[in-house]
């Protein structure tokens, strides 16, 4: 490793010794603001996995960028130490595409909710998958518009009672996996409670 100045939030500037092995970042070094999610929210598990990933894969602050739209889940960039942007509702993907194309050396993570990804940002989702832009998109799908206090989202199940469907949702929910595969995403995986789309070989 060549000599370089490394910025860490806890330790300030560290000039590395040439040839010295850089230690993986710890959870303490990668965390930023205290998460403001409600107790018990599944979003915490995504954050916990993110910390593990950064540590295990030895990723460095200066090589990671996080981008999000608007929603509870989209507050993710505030909770981690990395380059980050909290952008417009549904517009995280076009913003992130610009980051990816200009900085292909970065590990780019995009975070958002089901409303952000499949509703207001649905069009961008299809085209980003089609273009196979290098990024990891994590959709934290809680089947509802959480931040705005419970409106029906595109993944809300039939009969779901919300502020916009007092008698229960009558529209068939979308199937995110089918949609992303048919749009051309190169890697798609689903877990509870999140849906992850990796649009290229990252990380
Ligand atoms: C252009 C625009 N339209 C509507 C809103 C209001 N709004 C903020 S978050 C949100 C939905 C968030 O739902 P989701 O993406 O599922 O995220 P969650 O809060 O569930 O994590 C809406 C409709 C907004 N901020 N901007
Ligand atoms: Mg949601």
How would you describe this structure to a colleague?
- The chain is α/β, with parallel strands linked by helices and 203 residues long.
- 27% of the residues lie in helices and 20% in strands.
- It contains 6 helices and 10 strands.
- It has helices at 27-30, 43-56, 92-102, 114-120, 122-131, 176-183, and strands spanning 5-8, 12-15, 64-68, 83-86, 107-113, 136-140, 144-145, 151-152, 187-190, 195-198.
- The strands form 3 sheets. It has a 6-stranded mixed beta sheet. Strands 1-2 form a two-stranded antiparallel sheet.
- The longest helix has 14 residues, at 43-56.
- Residues 1-8, 10-15 and 198-203 have low confidence and may be disordered.
- It binds thiamine diphosphate (TPP) and magnesium ion.
- Residues 70-73, 89, 112-116, 140, 142, 144-148, 153 line the site of thiamine diphosphate.
- Thiamine diphosphate (TPP) binds next to strand 5, helix 4 and strand 7.
Kindly list the characteristics that best describe this protein.
single chain, 203 residues, alpha/beta, 6-stranded mixed beta sheet, two-stranded antiparallel sheet, 10 strands, 27% helix, globular, disordered N terminus, disordered C terminus, binds thiamine diphosphate, binds magnesium ion
Question: Summary?
Answer:
By secondary structure, this protein is an alpha/beta fold. The chain is 27% helix and 20% strand.
The largest beta-sheet arranges its strands as: 4-3-5-6-10-9
Cofactors, ions, other ligands: thiamine diphosphate, magnesium ion
Total helical segments: 6
Helical residue percent band? 25-40%
Report the uncertain regions. 1-8, 10-15, 198-203
Query: How large, in whole angstroms, is the Cα Rg?
Result: 18 Å
Shape: globular
SSE pattern? EEHHEEHEHHEEEHEE
